[in-house]
Amino acid sequence: MDSRKKTKIVATIGLASEDKEILRKIVDAGMNVARLNFSHGTHEWHGNAIKKIREVSKEAGRPIGILADLQGPRIRVGNTEPFEIEKGEIISVSDIKTTDEKELIIDSDRVASALQVGERIMVEDGVMRLKVVEKLENSVKAEVLNGGTIKPRKGINVPDTRLHFGAVTEKDRKDLEFVLGQEVDFVAMSFVSNAKEVLEMRENIKRILGREDSLPQIVVKIERKEAIDNLED
User: Fold this and answer.
1) 11 C-beta neighbours (distance < 10 Å), count
2) pTM across the whole model
3) pLDDT tens digit string along 162-209?
4) Which residues is 105 bridged to in the sheet?
5) How many other C-beta atoms lie within 10 A of the C-beta of residue 177?
6) Domains and CATH numbers, the chain
7) Most buried residue, 3, 21, 44, 219, by most Cβ within 10 Å?
8) Measured between alpha carbons, how far is 154 from 149 in angstroms, rounded to an integer?
9) Three-state DSSP class for 229?
């Protein structure tokens, strides 16, 4: 991939778009970077997708970069049953069940305790949004800004909250070894907080590849306020 091209048109390749005919159409429409989302799919599936992308790239006579988007630390809904929330409603948010009333349970023991008044809670990519209005001993109270149906295992993001997870999980490490073996052009990091995490990723890449140069570029996804605060790092 010619990394000197300044403008990248990135398209996510999934089950609906992995067919070579569809890939050709996406390339003809202008895609020059194919994104693979490692929140989903097996290494076998991703390996086959990379093979098809490279075949289409060769047939089209155009360089198509491959971007491996690592999942990063995931926070999910811990409730086992779906339930409705309505705009203006005040509900409890905790990492364990603390009340018989309506409550959003987060499947991590380090999130609810870190939430502060005024911070946002985004559920299912922001389809539902809440704002913390009161901090209690083992939970917080949050006002519903956008209602909807809270479903088990859906993703949660707390973009304003300072968390101490680190940006790379054990799953990410395994995925990183796989994608480096596939010689991808870009590695994307999710939920990054600071420059230290990016430098650690760069060192991991060097260690796995056993070299200092010809490394894939790192794409840092700015998804949290803490990352914006540390942007100058």
Assistant:
1) 18
2) 0.83
3) 887 777 899 999 999 999 999 999 999 998 989 999 999 999 999 999
4) 94
5) 14
6) 10-72+166-229 (3.20.20.60), 75-157 (2.40.33.10)
7) 219
8) 10
9) helix
